[in-house]
Amino acid sequence: MKYPNGVKKMHKNNVSYANRGMTLEEDINVTNKYYLDNNIGVIHKKPTPITINKVDYPSRLEAVIKEAHFNTPSTTDYNGVYKGKYIDFDAKECKSKTSFPLNNIHQHQIEHIKSIINHGGIGFLIVRFTTLNLTYYLDGNKLISFINDNDRKSIPIDYFTKEGILIKDRFQPRVDYLKVIDEVYF
After folding, report:
1. pLDDT, tens digit, for every residue of 127-170?
2. Is residue 148 part of a domain?
3. In a domain, 13, yes or no
4. Which of 12, 66, 96, 128 has the most other CB atoms within 10 Å of its CB?
5. For residue 10, is it within any domain?
6. With bands split at pLDDT 50, 70 and 90, how would you rate the model's confidence at 45?
7. Within-domain flag for 75
8. How many independent structural domains does the chain possess?
């Protein structure tokens, strides 16, 4: 395309518009609503524990939190019950095409996942490689095993393809992670 003053712009046709405007968290929230509405499972996003310090309160409908702080480090993003089993997981996104940086998950979250597993629950990660438009389920045991057996600061995508399970994009539910839970646990 030619623009004034001799400027040339090239248009690339290899752009993917899949999941445009959607984040993994939004996709999981919509998925969880689908699970709840269809009586499949009860999984909710956990609220972040905060203490409100200052509120602008012109009226009940217009109240705005102006200042707050975190009470304690949060654990994982989601928890609930599916087929009589407690499930607890965190959802993470990364832009890397080659690996998932371990600094994206905090030590207290790893300890929390270990605790869930030790008490008979199902703990796991859902990781989306946004640049590649790939979403993986990684069982908590595989996560812990990788961390214990490696000195790396990231988990290579090859580990996800070998040890994780690809969650294919769907219309409903969007991120059907309970299908993976069925394959692994039931």
Report:
1. 999 999 999 999 999 999 999 999 999 999 999 999 999 999 88
2. yes
3. no
4. 128
5. no
6. very high
7. yes
8. 1
Residue 108 neighbours by CB under 8 Å, 6+ apart: 73, 75
Phi/psi of residue 73, nearest 5 degrees: -60, 135
- Residue 96's domain spans which residues? 19-185
CATH of the domain at 74: 3.40.1350.10
pLDDT over 90 (residue 18):
no
Give this prediction's pTM.
0.79
Q: Which amino acid is at 142?
A: K
Q: What is the pLDDT of residues 68-113, one digit of tens each?
A: 766 666 688 899 999 999 999 999 999 999 999 999 999 999 999 9
